Structures are given as C-alpha cells and as structure tokens.
Amino acid sequence: MGTSVDVLLVTANVGSLFDNLGEIESNWLREFYKTIHRYKPYFIALHCQEVGGKDYELNISHVEDFINNILSSREMKDFDRACVYVDNDFRMKSCFTALGSMYLIHRSIKQIYQYDFREKEYKAVCGQNIHLGSLDDVPSLEKEKFPKNFWPDFNWSRKGFMRTRWIIHNSGFDLVNVHLFHDASNLIACKSSPSVYSGNREKALRYVINRISDNTYSLLPFFLFGDFNFRLDTQSLVENVCSSGDIQTIQTGSNNEVEKIICEEKENDHKVLLHIESKLFEYVHKAAFHENNGQALLKYDKEINHFQDILTEEEIVFPPSYPYSEDHAKPTQYMNTRCPSWCDRVLMSQSAKILIYREPEEECENNGVAYNTIGSNVCMGDHKPVFLFFRIKTNG
Q1: What is the overall mean pLDDT for the chain?
Q2: Nearest 5°: phi and psi at 250?
Q3: CA 100, 105, 106, 112: dihedral to nearest 10 degrees?
Q4: Cis (ω within 30 of 0) for the bond into 331?
Q5: pLDDT confidence of 201, banded at 50, 70, 90?
C-alpha cells in the first residue's frame, strides 16, 4: 500500500459560537479536541462557515483569538505546521463570504505541498501561514462569492466557496469549503417539490463543481465539505405526516398570502400534529428526528440525488445536524424554527473515494472510516460539526 496518512475533515457552521461568545467556545473546543484525541489524525482540515456570526461587525475581532486558541493549545503541540485562511474583511461586501479554513499538519508528515494557483506549482508547507482579510491576493487559495443573481431575493448573502490544493506523499487532492443558500421561509419551502430554495442550492453547487473541474488546472480528486444547507423535501414530508389528519391553510391580507399551515388529528380532540409558519416548524413527534438517528427521514433528504454521478458520501448514521437549541441545558433538542435537516456534510468526488483506504471489516469497526457529528450531547450551537475520518492511500 505504501505510506498512509490518517486524515480528519471537519465542517462547522460557527455562527452561534461567535454570537454567544464565551458561552459555547469552551465546549466546542473541548469536543473538537476529544475527536482529535480519539482518532489521532496527522492531517486536520477544519472548514468553518459564518465566521464572526450574524453580528460579524461586532465579533470579527474575536476571530484571531479563536484561531490562536487552537494553534497554541496543548492538544496541537505536535502539529508543527498550519495554513489558515479567514475571509473576515466585511467591508468588501461584494466578495465577503465569512468562510474560514484551517489546516493542521503533524510533525510526522515529511512530504506535504500546497499548490500556488498564481505560479501553477506546488510548494513545500513550512511554519504557520495565517491569512486574514479579503484573501483575494493569497496565491495558495481560490475563493469566490456566488454571483448576486444566485440568491432568490437578489440581496447579497455571505455564501460562496474557497479551495486549496494539496499533495501528501505524492497523493494530490482539492479541499473545498462551501456554504450554500438557506431556506428563507418554511411556507415557501412547502410550496413545491423540489422547493425553490433546493433549486437554488443545486444551481450553486453545480457552479462550484464546474469551477473546480474546469480546464484551468489539472483535475484532481476533491473533498467538498461545508454547510450545504440541504433540507428535507418539506412538501413530501408534510404530505406524509398529515396523510391521516386535517390540513388547514390560513391566509391573511388582501393578497391571500399563506400565513400558517396547521395539521390536526381527525380524532383525539383535533390535537395539532404540525404547525408551520415562515420561521416556525413545530412537529409534535419531534423525537422522530432522533429515533434510530432519524434514519426513517433520510428518504426526504433528496438534494444530493441531483449529483449522484459526480459526488458520493459515506453512509449517514447520525441525526440531522441542524437546528439544535443554543440553550446549554438542551444540547440534544431541536429548535422549532426549521425542519431538522442534514445541512452539514462531507461529500467527495468518485475519484476521492478511491483514495480512502478501508481496513478489512473483521479487523476494524466501519473499515476504519468514521462519519459522524462532534459534540452530540453537548451544546455546540445551532449546528453540530460533522467530521469524516479516514486513512488516505499515498504513493510514497
């Protein structure tokens, strides 16, 4: 097999972490370090979205502290090289994505190179390379905000992607941090299947794949991990949930716009099964999202199906990663704002899947590959980070 390297890929929407500064960070870091301690990776890639949170103008100054906390921690003492990219210049509205990517390299890795997109050559990674700002002039990174017309209401949003390219012991691959569009209204998400938001995400993700697969640079296997904002097919889910109940659509105003959707049981005193408003999704059987890790609901997770010929993913065996309560006392409860969904994912090209070395089943649980959430029983904010751990095949 030649040399192999243990790799940990993590995606984390950290908006809550910055919005509740100090309250979530210690939990978050402790669980992150626990994962590192358990799997003992030699190469760590942490992709963050919503760096700085919703009040980024106020909180962006804390980003450096967060980075330094990780780089200077006891847990990272054997990682002697780091490459950090944080798009935190919110004054550059036309290109601000609030994405942050951190790559940590263990001292035992002797041959690791990063691609310089400007000079079109690989360069050995040395020391700590920390880039904060608009990142437009950083040659080891490609970054792009989605074109303005990708967003349904044509307002600017902090959505886009950034890519880095690596060679570890002669194995090359791209790592892409991505943040796609969310559902602005539960009611609009119910109107069609697929929803208008799903269509927008598909368009944006196809744009990313086309950009990283064009002829500008040689084509490499790629891992695409971030907050895809994939949502369950709400219309199909509601139809199924309410198949034995009575659905009421409550309209308001002169234009008869739908304000509420309420589903009641036909018997049992017309108990409300489901209550939906623009930013409310209240389902009486919310435990279904945790039972057997929500496996019965995976059939509504359809957005990845548009990319079956291009992308693949390890089996999902964890409950939806969003939207968890930000209350410390309720770390496993979902908020009643959105339908719980597997928003945070680690996807890969078919060629990237081939790079993953799988142990014989009888020797190692899950063939030595793990795909799960971090901090399942701890308050990590509204998103649980999601990780993929594996051993990469290398040629030298």
Answers
A1: 92
A2: -100, 120
A3: 170
A4: no
A5: very high
Neighbouring C-beta atoms of residue 23, cutoff 10 Å: 15
Beta-strand ranges (E) seen in 229-349 are: 245-252, 257-265, 272-277, 280-283, 311-312, 344-349
Residue 392 pairs with which residues in a beta bridge? 5, 356
Residue 384 CA to chain centroid, in angstroms? 9
153: which 2 tokens? 């209401």
**Position 91, amino acid:** R
Neighbours of 137 (CB within 10 A): 9
pTM exceeding the 0.70 threshold for the entire prediction: yes
Cis, bond preceding 323 (omega within 30 deg of 0): yes
The Cα 122–Cα 115 span in angstroms is 4
- In percent, how much of the chain has pLDDT > 70? 96
Which candidate, 183, 383, 141, places its Cα nearest to that of 277?
A: 183
Two tokens, residue 230: 């994939």
Handedness of CA 297, 303, 10, 110 (dihedral sign): positive
Amino acid 1: pLDDT: 43
Side chain identity, residue 193: S
Q: Is 199 exposed, middle or buried (0-12, 13-18, 19+ CB in 10 A)?
A: middle
Residue with tokens 């942050």: 100
Ramachandran quadrant class, 50 (left: phi over 0; alpha: psi -120 to 50; beta: rest): left
CA distances from 157 to 27, 77, 265, 369 (A): 29, 37, 39, 35
Helix (H) or strand (E) holding 258: strand 257-265
